[in-house]
Amino acid sequence: MTDGVHRRAAQRSPAAIELRVAARLENLALLRTMVVAVGTFSDLNLDAVSDLRLAVDEACTALIGSATNEAMLEVVVDPRKDVVVVEAWTTCDARDEVVSEGSISWHVLSSLTD
After folding, report:
1. Domain boundaries, the chain
2. Do 90 and 74 meet the contact criterion of CB atoms below 8 Å apart?
3. Widest CA span of the chain, in angstroms?
4. Which of 22, 62, 65, 66 is 20 to 30 A from 100 (CA-CA)?
5. What is the SS3 assignment for 3?
6. Residues whose CB is less than 8 angstroms from the CB of residue 86 and which lie 6 or more positions away in sequence, other chains included
7. 46-66 and 28-41 are packed helices; what angle lies between their axes, rounded to 10 degrees?
8. Beta-carbon neighbour count of residue 17 at 10 Å?
9. Cβ neighbour number for residue 71 with a 10 Å cutoff
10. DSSP symbols for 56-109
């Protein structure tokens, strides 16, 4: 593990949930289900849960599209007092940005997240 990974883990709340799956599109439903469950149990309103689900779906779809063949996608959902923090990462081909500023994905993520 890198120092960045250790630092992220140290900043998580005890309620954080981490899921590690193969970076494949067929795993998006599982990730969406986890995020919706955490958002619902965190007492987010329905619009916020829907926005959270869409943002995670968009981000993970972009990561999967850039992932190397055997990569694993790791997602941490960390419900805190006033916010749900989501981190997602995978091993990507270094050729391109995962989400380019100004792209449709960038606009979707910018409009759904803080």
Report:
1. 19-112
2. yes
3. 40
4. 22
5. helix
6. 35, 52, 55, 56, 59, 75, 76, 77, 78
7. 150
8. 14
9. 18
10. HHHHHHHHHHHB-TT-EEEEEEEE-SS-EEEEEE--B-TTS-SS-TTSHHHHHH
CATH topology (fold) of 19-112: Heat Shock Protein 90 (3.30.565)
AA letter at 82: D
Mention every residue, 6+ apart, whose C-beta is less than 8 A from residue 12.
76, 78
What pLDDT is recorded for position 70?
94
Which pTM value belongs to this model?
0.78
Q: Could you state, in chain order, the average pLDDT of each consecutive group of 10 residues for the chain (114 residues)?
A: 50 90 96 95 92 91 89 95 89 71 64 66
Q: Are strands 84-89 and 72-79 parallel, antiparallel or unpaired?
A: antiparallel
Phi-psi region of 102 (alpha: psi -120 to 50; beta: other; left: phi over 0): left
pLDDT for the residue numbered 3: 42
Q: How many Å apart are CA 70 and CA 18, to the nearest integer?
A: 19
